[in-house]
Design a protein that fits this description.
12 helices; 379 residues; three-stranded antiparallel sheet; single chain; seven-stranded mixed sheet; globular; 12 strands; alpha/beta
């Protein structure tokens, strides 16, 4: 079996699983405890924070560890909305955000906030001019993802951040960086970003841990009340084994980014050429996109049927965001890009990893061609 679902989760580095086991066995003290075991855990926590900060080129005090990107996104958006109600109750995002942003905004709407959901073009892109036009005197925050998790669309977050700092410096800018970090370069400090979310398991780290970059001087209303850990923003005993392993994975992702992007980009180009050669398929991934995600539709079929046929041939792919994959309705992202309900119900996402090779791509394309022919005969 060959795993082509890296956008959903990634196989952890061997060093990461070894780190989790070692730290869990040897450094089990609570980092808030005053005895030696607690102090050892606290030192590991501080070191991990420094490693993560170095990978992002930010200050360690600006790193808040969370339980994953969903928590990071909710903390950023709800924390800002609740903290700055004196500025207003208007938020801006796009129609194609990850569910942890989109549904968070929907929840805030039910609590009395107003949200502008910016439309995207056929490539899934939103323009900085659209964001600027949507700004109001009572706008508190803009949230735009770096890379779309379904199609790989690359949003112009640096340009949006520069526009906001020039036109509306009081408006906070949040970026969900989950699918971009380690594949594409992005200077958090140089892109006008105030809040930035990451998840460890999308970077070959463990599940259940992530981080939120919070620009120094920025206050957020905490979602969890308790002992005041993580600068008061995320109460609860820190998960030291996973945090230390996350720091290792983040460092490896950062250091290997240029080479990884080049390799994945070449594999992606090979895959796209093979998909284009099959006229039954509709390519949804645009030219300006991440190097590891390719998305296509086979209109007239159920995505699940093609997915399971490919699984029978030895390949794991997905239909959409893992958070939405069990839903039967058409993809919200593809509908927002102007695709028909038929195309939006038949999407397949292939997401690449650094362990893949050209022969894996060729084998997948051959299996896909065989599966499409089988579906045609059934129809």
């Amino acid at each position: 079996m060959i795993y082509f679902d890296h956008a959903a989760t990634t196989p952890p580095y061997k060093e990461v699983t070894e780190t989790v086991a070692e730290v869990m066995a040897r450094h089990y003290g609570n980092p808030s405890s005053l005895h030696r075991l607690g102090e050892e855990s606290d030192r590991l926590l501080n070191k991990a924070r420094e490693v993560c900060a170095a990978a992002l080129s930010v200050n360690p005090k600006e790193i808040v560890f969370t339980g994953g990107a969903t928590e990071s996104n909710n903390t950023a958006i709800k924390g800002a909305a609740l903290q700055y109600t004196n500025r207003g109750k208007h938020l801006i995002t796009t129609e194609t955000e990850h569910p942890s942003v989109y549904e968070c905004c929907k929840q805030l709407e039910s609590w009395g906030w107003e949200v502008t959901y910016l439309p995207v073009d056929a490539d899934g892109l939103v323009a900085p001019e659209q964001v600027e036009a949507a700004l109001r005197q009572d706008t508190v925050l803009v949230s735009v993802m770096h890379v779309n998790n379904e199609t790989g669309t690359l949003q112009p977050v640096a340009e949006i951040g520069a526009m906001l700092k020039d036109k509306a410096p009081r408006v906070l800018f949040h970026v969900d960086g989950v699918q971009g970090f380690g594949k594409l370069p992005l200077a958090v400090k140089g892109s006008g970003i105030d809040l930035y979310s990451l998840s460890a398991h999308k970077l070959r780290g463990p599940k259940g841990v992530g981080l939120l970059y919070v620009r120094e001087g920025l206050k957020l209303s905490p979602l969890l009340a308790g002992g005041g850990q993580e600068g008061g923003l995320r109460s609860g005993t820190e998960n030291i084994p996973y945090i230390v392993a996350f720091a290792k994975a983040l460092r490896l992702a950062s250091e290997g980014q240029p080479g990884r992007a080049a390799k994945l980009g070449a594999l992606k180009d090979r895959l796209l050429r093979g998909l284009i050669a099959q006229p039954e398929l509709l390519i949804n991934t645009p030219g300006a996109s991440a190097p590891h995600i390719v998305h296509f539709s086979y209109p007239g079929t159920k995505a699940e049927a093609l997915l399971h046929m490919l699984e029978e041939e030895g390949f794991f792919v997905s239909t959409r965001s893992a958070c939405s994959s069990r839903r039967s309705e058409p993809s919200r992202v593809l509908l927002a890009m102007g695709r028909s309900p038929e195309a939006a119900s038949s999407g397949i996402r292939i997401s690449l990893g650094e362990e893949h090779h050209e022969q894996d791509i060729d084998a997948l394309l051959a299996a896909l061609k065989k599966s499409v022919q089988r579906l045609q005969s059934l129809r």
